[in-house]
Write a structure and sequence with these properties.
By secondary structure, the protein is an alpha+beta fold. It is built from 10 helices and 12 strands.
Amino acid sequence: MDLAAALGHARSTRRPDPDTPAGPAVPAWPGWPLPIPEARPAELDLQALLRLSLAASDGSGRLRPAPSAGALHPVDTELVVGASCSLPPGRYGYDPLRHRVHRLGRQPEGTPPGMTAELSVTARRTASHYGHRAWPLLLLDTGHAAAALFLAARALGAGEPELRLDGGAERPLAVVHLPPSGLVHRTDASVYRLDGPLHSQPSASAHTPEELLARRSTPPPLPGTPDAYALRAVLTNAAHAGGSDLRWCAAVGPPRPGLMELAPDGTALRRYAAGEARPTLAAWAAGQTWIADAGAVLLARGCPADADTPHIRRTHLRAGFAVHLAHVTARRHGLTARPVGSWQQADLGAALGATPGQDWIVHGLALGTLHAEEENTP
């Protein structure tokens, strides 16, 4: 498919057609569904890892640790299992609704210890509601799923996760390798990892399993302006995780409305542009009027109009990955948060007087300090 053309259509003002059937929520994996055994000492606990990252926790299949546009969850996962895992080595299809696996065959020769999750999408699920706006959302959802696996591995003390988010292939779109505790498979330039030391045990900054199970997208509205400390933490986490193709800022309201970004040394916030941006963002975000009253809106921007297919994939995958990490950081700081993935005519650079077509909004995260019901409590 022509992904550049698909992105151009998604950024246009044309509205999606009426909904169509979404089809099955899970691929028709062959064979019998198999339970995931409990892990023994020194094994990677796949039952716990998938429960914290991808498994549905309600009967409808909508409620999951990784958010998804319209709760349509288009991401499909194949697991390539090596040694030192709670499942026997092999290739498996994962069913997040039943929290079961289907054995698909043997693992490839040279499979490293641990588990490799290959993430692909069934586009029909998202296109059933979003139509021509689906492809950016599919990529963002995949980035969120990769981040959910990354966070689960760190929470459980696995070896340092390795991620392929380079956009080089359509299937799988992303690959996440999770080694057992203390093991690292490879470090070539095509593997993406967060900077910093490797952790064989959960670090002080690792999120707990309880935090990961509790993360949810806050229903709008999201009133209340985050303080500078919390906003800087969210921006820092996003910029750290998003890679070099994306730039980050946050739109804030009164008393000094404008766009804030990290200072070059990362120790403070500075004003990137003055003026109230949130009503414009609400119009650009498929007319979601509540965004105009959000306490702040984190923005990932980049992906120019002439970007090639790998660049489009890479920026959207990494934006989804980074916004997911920023979301859990916001929750740790007591903020409410909701990802915003659908953007039309959102050429932020042109709106600020720069060259048109170079600096588009790719993803967003609305932030607040109060739930609506808390705001109205005496």
